Amino acid sequence: MPESKEKKSLGILALAGLEPYQEKPGEEYMGEPQLEHFRKILNAWRNQLREEVDRTMNHMKDEAANFPDPVDRAAQEEEFNLELRNRDRERKLIKKIDKTLQRIEDDDFGFCDSCGIEIGVRRLEARPTAELCIDCKTLAELKEKQMAG
Q1: pLDDT by residue (tens digit) across 85-103?
Q2: HSE, side-chain direction, 13 A CA sphere, residue 39
Q3: Conformational region of residue 9, where left means phi above 0, alpha means psi within -120 to 50, and beta covers everything else
Q4: What angle do CA 68, 52, 110 make, to 5 degrees?
Q5: What is its subcellular localisation (predicted)?
Q6: Which residues are annotated as a binding site for Zn(2+)?
Q7: 20-73 confidence digits (pLDDT tens)
């Protein structure tokens, strides 16, 4: 299996080379050790996404060919379009990661934007860019579903 495929299947924690955070008794929520843990996760995730962007640019430059057969040309264009859509989603995710890193610097990370309670270390390890606690996110998804249906 190629290295890039292997790396993609790794979880965010494994990508950062970290173990799940073990809270110490009496430890303050989102104290410096926890914030540093999430900084490492977010920076590793952002670096991995940037590597994918570079890899795509090189791939598209190296693989670009003017095939005489229209079917071959169409297949290559479709492959490039799919890659570009994926990179666009990753570009948006990089912006969200940058926003989350700024929230850490602003001391606004780890608390729900809607109700203000702690989001929780495990939820943030699963989705480091989360801005809502699980209850508020569930309610938001239900409202979205009702508006769409």
Answers
A1: 998 999 999 999 999 999 9
A2: 13
A3: alpha
A4: 150
A5: Cytoplasm
A6: 112, 115, 133, 136
A7: 999 999 999 999 999 999 999 999 999 999 998 888 888 777 777 777 888 888
Collapsing DSSP to helix, strand or coil, 66 comes out as coil
Backbone phi, psi, residue 145, to 5°: -65, -40
Name the token pair of 64: 């670009």
| Residue 59 CB neighbour total at 10 angstroms | 14
Cβ neighbours of 66 (radius 10 Å): 7
Written as six digits, the tokens of 107 are: 């001391």
Any residues with CB less than 8 A from the CB of 32 and at least 6 apart, and which? none
Give the 3-state DSSP-derived string for 73-86, with helices as H, strands as E and coil as C. Answer: HHHHHHHHHHHHHH
Binding residues: 112, 115, 133, 136
* Structure tokens, 23: 């809270």
Q: Give me the residue label for tokens 């495990």.
A: 122
Tokens of 31: 């104290």
Q: Which two tokens stand for residue 76?
A: 């290559």
- The structure's pTM equals 0.80
